[in-house]
Amino acid sequence: MGPATPQPTLPDPSVPKMAEGGSGEPGLDVTPLVPAGLGARLGVPVAGLLSREPLVVAATATAAEVALAMREDRQSAAIVGTDPPGIVTAGDLQARVLAEGRPPHTPVRQVMTRPVHTVPAEAPLAIAVLLMLDEGVEHVPVVRAGRIVGVITEDDVVRRQVPSPLLVVGRVRRIATRADAAGYGADLAAAAGALLADSVDPLRITAVVASLNDALTVRLLALAEAELGPPPCRYAWLAMGSQGRMEQLLAADQDTALAYADGTGDGADPEHAAGPDVAAYYAALAAQVTDGLAGAGLPRCRRGFMATSWSYPLARWRAIFQRWRDEPDARALLDAQVFLDFRRVGGELAIDVLNRPLVAARTRPGFLAAVADAAQSFNPRLGPFGRIRTDRDGTVDLKLRGTVPAVLLGRLYGLAAGTTARGTAQRLDAAEADGLLSADARESLLDAYRVLLRIRLARQLADLAAGRPMALTVPLTELSSVALRQLRAALAELRTRQRASALSHPSAR
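RE: above sequence
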């Protein structure tokens, strides 16, 4: 078997949506808050990591021939010369040929992946890393002038010892006991800091943080099941709050819950209660995973929103959601809004039934009015001429007076649009599509949110570098003049959108 005929010409790849670079905040300078030595290494072009030409095989080559070629060329992937090209990896041959009992003479085109996810040769390394995370792949072909000039692998990134999310993923894979998770938080911070220093979109960074915490949670669930025995019924481990929205910063605490099947109907029958043994199993599971997350550096929720306290049969969860929707109490709903961002992270129990009360919320004016109250409760502190009002120590709380208002506005508009989306950007997209928000308003609000996330994340990294607890407040004296202007504009935009929401969604008060 020889190499295939020259590869078909590929169009120059665009950066995938889930791996776009750039902060979306031209001119924002938070350098004074970013610890020295955290970054720049994810900004190198991916072409700099390539050391050899890609292995190219014919579409008619057999799985055995491709495996032999990989071994001889010491490569873990091959480009298949179809039009457009495909890719096959050593893992594909193992999973799709050996594991499925296919014969060695199986044509490689039957087990290849196509189309391939590629990156331009001049793209920064961060783009390839994020693409690997987003698509769950370990090999990314690199394209220059329409030709695949090499393949960058997860091992290539790890060997460079770049503080990247892939190193954190590798650490999670090696966790064999809960004690092994110690130190995870430091690795996570280093990866987030490298992305921030290389100007990756803050919304992307928070999604990476959440996805890595997801991976840690799944690993801890597996360890707990191995110790406690197989689950007595299907369950769903729920991430809520910022992790549920995939917008998690480093200082976020645990916001989790647990739902499990109720009888034979997976929670459909409220009268059919699960037995005490089932509840005891999931109480133990929740305790072990919560302890493991705390040991890894994710603090316990001070308000008690954790699976150790919120573990119920699915039918009870549905009743709770319906009560919030139909009989909204403003004070209780303010505390409970963290649950509206729920997302299944682990387990096999389907939880789509919990979406129904949320989709129907747009028809409940009382519920939307209560959510509107919450969205208008946390006002950015701006004085005359846009002056930022600080506390006595010269700091401003950019969580309660910044990111929280942005999240609450996104939640309000998302519920009004009837979407099941969890992320703030996706909720605002739905609101725009439903005519509730203009394109300019959506983009302005998201830009303001990015500014606030970036400054908060930079402050958290600075605290860690100085050995201080991560604070919710930011001293204005540590911001550059450019960052201050951006911050004023962001807070003013939030205040404008709050006033607009008050007109479109009247308060229940």
